[in-house]
Structures are given as structure tokens and as C-alpha cells.
């Protein structure tokens, strides 16, 4: 008599395919709004507010007046950085509590979609940020960034629920790859609209507002796929029984307990500190690359835009490549190789010749290959080191450390530039973050961390 076929792998693949779409959905906002269009547009609006209203497409504004923001005098050019920093710090404070709530909520796909749609709603408010109305832009970016971080915690917590330990690296890498592809496609469309706005019969400001609105709509629309297709998993009752009270009381109690118990998961804690360093290095390289390309190497906007697009699409293949390598060699080894490549990138940047496009594009190619892979594998590797039933809580610390310490790299970059007057040593100094992160990661005993978390070890670690 034949046995009953095991349909669990088919179910997991179906869930994984649905899960990929959330990376596709939110990456449009990250690339089009947060990375490319928001800051320069917001500076223009803030300048008009500080200096007096001028038409949306005025190019001749020359004013040194400051904004009065809650009693503080803020230069218009610094406003986006302050807004993003505020939302980042606020996320770092709130996300750990959110993780405790999410682990006590069976309807994780509902939480994911709720935060996504709220974030897209905030992002859509950027359509009304025009003239001198910078305040609505501030509300929009703070709210959207908070909701993006919250949805990322829930989304990452779903990963261990829809994949076995052997599948994590592949699934996480495909999600990142899908995100880069989706974000790159919409960014390409929007950059065509903004660059050739005259051909479409509109001004620059209108083209930017339409592009930012399209990212909000994209984020909201494609979130319907995981919302409709993902299945919620039952809560592990053993976790819920350990803290008394309602969901908020349980969540605060769970958060306090986890803070005390982190010492029981030393490998997970060591990895979190390693991630703090090397991810800060990655984020600072990405954030400073356009400034480095323009101010140090002398490239114009068209070259920088082309490089950004190239990095997006190369990162799609890079994430898939790193995922396959991890299946063969283990995530930790592949991440360490990725960090060596990052060290090579910032070292190369120290000597990169000015106004020579081929070396600059080759460096962008290297960034694209390693960018998605290291981040995707960091997510899947960490999932092996955290206990079942508390995925959201631990991933909330993962994201909180990312946001709460993300200013280390930019501060280092700025201080070195201040002292030397050159972006070359500033970007090279970031090698310290990759070295420290790599050394700490090398100390993580993967097998021990998996045992401490009570997980099954994948075939290759």
C-alpha cells in the first residue's frame, strides 16, 4: 500500500512565491522615493518656504534663510537628513515593542498588509507636498518610514514560518532579488518621466510628484498578493502562556524577558553586533556613492542615474548568485566573502581616477553583485539563530540595531571628510566597519547558535 504524498513542500513553495511579492512591493518606495527623489525635492520645497513662495519649477532661488522647526533653526538643505534621522531613531525605539506584539498575533499577514497600506498612505501624501508646504512632506516621510520598518519586521518574521532551515538562504535571496527587480523597473520608468518631463508636457516638480505617487500606489497594490495568498500559522501556545495580561501587557513583559534572556543566545547576540558594523558600512557606501561620484570624480547627473539603475538590476542577479553559493558553502562563509569584496570596493575607491567612466561603472558593477547578496543572507542566517515562536521579536531587534546605529558610518564619513577635505579617505575609512563586522562574524559558531535556538541544522552550515 502506497504512502500518502507529502504536500508540505508544495505548500511552502506557494507561500514563498506569495512572500516574494512584498519585497517587490516595498522596494519601489525605497528606490524611487527614499533613495532618489525625496531629498532633492524636499530641499526645493523647504527653500521656498524659508525664502518666500516661488513657482514650483523656479531654478534661480538664491537664499540663505532657515526654517523654524519646533523652535529650531534648520537649513533647508539639511531638512531631509533631519527628518530621516528622526524617523530612524523613532523606529529603533518602537520596533522591539512591535516585535513582541507581532509574535502574539496570529494574523501576521494582516499586520504586514496593514503596515504596508498605512505606509503607502503616508507616502501618497507627498503628492500634496508642493509650493512651500514642506510640513506635509515631513509627516509623509516620517510616517512612511516608520510603517516600512514595521512591515519589514513582520515580513522577516514570516520567513522562518514558510521555509525550512535548508531553504532559508534561497528563499531570502530570491525575495531580495525580486525586490531589486521591482524597484529597478519602477525607478527606470520614473527617471524617464523626470528626465524627459518636457516631452510629456509637464514641469519637473509635477513629474517628481507623479513619480513619488506611483511608488506609493505600487507599494499598496502589490501588497494585495501576499495579503491574499499567504496563510497565517497558528501561534505557539507555550510562548503565550508565559506572560500574563492583555496583548500590550504581554508584549511589554515579553520584551523585558527577551532583553534579560539575550545572554542565553550569545551567538545570535554576537551576530547582531557584527551586523551592526558591516551593515552600517554597506548603507554608508550606498548613501555616499552619488556624492563621491559627483564631487570627487566629477561625473554628471546622467552618469549617476545610469549607475544607480545598473546597480539595481545587477543586484537582482547578485542576490540569486549569493543564494546559490550559500546552498553549497553555507551562508556565513559567503557573507564573509562578500565582506572581503566590500573591503576591496572601498579600497579601490581610494585610488579611482577622476572623470574616467569605465572604472566607476566597474565599481558600481561590483557593488551591485555584492549588495543584495550580503543583506539577503544576513537575514536568512540570523533566522537560524533565533528561537521558534519569537521570530518577530528577534527580527525587531535586528532592525532596531540597524536603525539605531545607522549614523555611525555617516558620522565617520563626515568627520574624515571634515579633517581631510577629500572624499577618498572618507570612503576608505569605512573599511573599518567591514573589518570589525567580519571579525565578529567569524567568531559566531553557527552550529552552537542553531542548537541554542532549538532549530534544525541545515545540511550545509
UniProtKB/TrEMBL annotation:
Alphabetical UniProt keywords: Membrane, Transmembrane, Transmembrane helix, Transport
Which residues belong to any copy of the Major facilitator superfamily (MFS) profile domain? 267-461
Q: Where in the cell is it found?
A: Cell membrane
**InterPro entries membership:** Atg22-like (IPR024671), ATG22/LtaA_families (IPR050495), MFS_dom (IPR020846), MFS_trans_sf (IPR036259)
Q: In what way does this protein cross or attach to the membrane? A: Multi-pass membrane protein
**What PROSITE patterns has UniProt attached to this entry?**
MFS
Q: Which domain of life is it from?
A: Bacteria
Gene3D superfamilies in alphabetical order = MFS general substrate transporter like domains
A Pfam family (short name) is ATG22
**Would the keyword Transferase be found if you checked this record's keyword annotation?**
no
* Membrane-crossing segments per the record: 21-43, 79-98, 110-128, 134-154, 175-194, 206-228, 262-278, 298-322, 334-354, 360-382, 394-417, 423-442
Q: What is this protein called?
A: MFS transporter
Organism for this UniProt entry:
Nocardioides dubius
The organism's taxonomic lineage, starting at the top: Bacteria, Bacillati, Actinomycetota, Actinomycetes, Propionibacteriales
Amino acid at each position: 500500500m502506497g504512502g500518502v504524498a507529502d504536500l508540505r513542500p508544495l505548500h511552502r513553495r506557494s507561500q514563498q512565491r506569495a512572500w516574494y511579492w512584498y519585497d517587490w512591493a516595498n522596494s519601489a518606495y525605497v528606490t524611487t522615493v527614499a533613495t532618489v527623489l525625496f531629498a532633492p525635492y524636499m530641499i526645493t520645497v523647504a527653500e521656498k518656504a524659508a525664502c518666500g513662495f516661488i513657482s514650483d519649477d523656479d531654478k534661480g532661488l538664491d537664499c540663505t534663510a532657515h526654517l523654524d522647526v519646533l523652535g529650531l533653526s534648520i537649513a533647508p538643505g539639511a531638512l531631509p537628513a533631519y527628518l530621516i534621522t528622526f524617523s530612524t531613531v523613532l523606529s529603533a525605539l518602537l520596533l522591539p515593542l512591535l516585535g513582541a506584539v507581532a509574535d502574539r498575533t496570529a494574523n501576521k499577514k494582516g499586520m504586514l498588509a496593514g503596515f504596508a497600506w498605512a505606509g503607502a498612505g503616508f507616502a501618497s501624501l507627498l503628492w500634496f507636498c508642493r509650493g512651500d508646504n514642506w510640513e506635509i512632506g515631513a509627516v509623509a516621510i516620517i510616517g512612511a518610514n516608520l510603517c516600512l520598518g514595521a512591515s519589514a519586521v513582520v515580513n522577516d518574521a514570516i520567513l522562518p514560518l514558510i521555509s525550512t532551515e535548508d531553504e532559508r538562504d534561497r528563499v531570502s535571496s530570491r525575495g531580495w532579488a525580486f525586490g531589486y527587480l521591482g524597484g529597478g523597473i519602477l525607478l527606470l520608468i520614473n527617471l524617464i518621466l523626470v528626465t524627459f518631463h518636457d516631452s510629456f508636457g509637464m514641469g519637473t516638480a509635477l513629474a517628481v510628484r507623479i513619480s513619488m505617487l506611483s511608488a506609493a500606489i505600487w507599494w499598496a497594490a502589490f501588497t494585495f498578493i501576499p495579503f491574499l495568498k499567504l496563510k497565517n500559522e497558528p501561534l505557539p501556545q507555550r510562548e503565550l502562556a508565559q506572560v500574563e495580561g492583555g496583548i500590550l501587557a504581554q508584549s511589554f513583559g515579553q520584551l523585558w524577558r527577551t532583553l534579560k534572556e539575550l545572554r542565553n543566545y550569545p551567538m545570535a547576540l554576537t551576530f547582531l553586533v557584527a551586523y551592526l558594523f558591516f551593515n552600517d558600512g554597506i548603507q554608508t557606501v550606498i548613501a555616499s556613492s552619488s556624492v563621491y561620484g559627483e564631487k570627487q570624480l566629477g561625473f554628471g547627473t546622467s552618469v549617476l542615474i545610469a549607475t544607480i539603475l545598473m546597480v539595481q538590476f545587477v543586484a537582482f542577479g547578485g542576490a540569486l548568485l549569493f543564494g546559490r553559493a550559500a546552498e553549497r558553502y553555507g551562508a556565513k562563509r559567503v557573507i564573509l566573502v562578500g565582506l572581503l569584496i566590500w573591503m576591496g570596493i572601498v579600497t579601490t575607491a581610494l585610488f579611482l581616477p577622476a572623470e574616467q567612466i569605465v572604472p566607476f561603472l566597474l565599481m558600481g558593477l561590483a557593488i551591485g553583485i555584492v549588495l543584495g547578496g550580503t543583506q539577503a543572507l544576513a537575514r536568512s542566517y540570523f533566522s537560524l539563530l533565533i528561537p521558534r515562536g519569537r521570530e518577530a521579536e528577534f527580527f525587531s531587534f535586528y532592525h532596531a540595531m540597524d536603525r539605531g546605529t545607522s549614523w555611525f558610518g555617516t558620522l565617520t564619513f563626515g568627520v574624515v571628510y571634515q579633517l581631510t577635505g577629500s572624499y577618498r579617505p572618507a570612503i576608505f575609512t569605512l573599511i573599518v566597519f567591514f573589518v570589525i563586522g567580519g571579525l565578529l562574524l567569524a567568531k559566531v559558531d553557527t552550529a552552537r547558535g542553531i542548537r541554542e535556538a532549538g532549530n534544525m541544522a541545515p545540511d550545509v552550515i
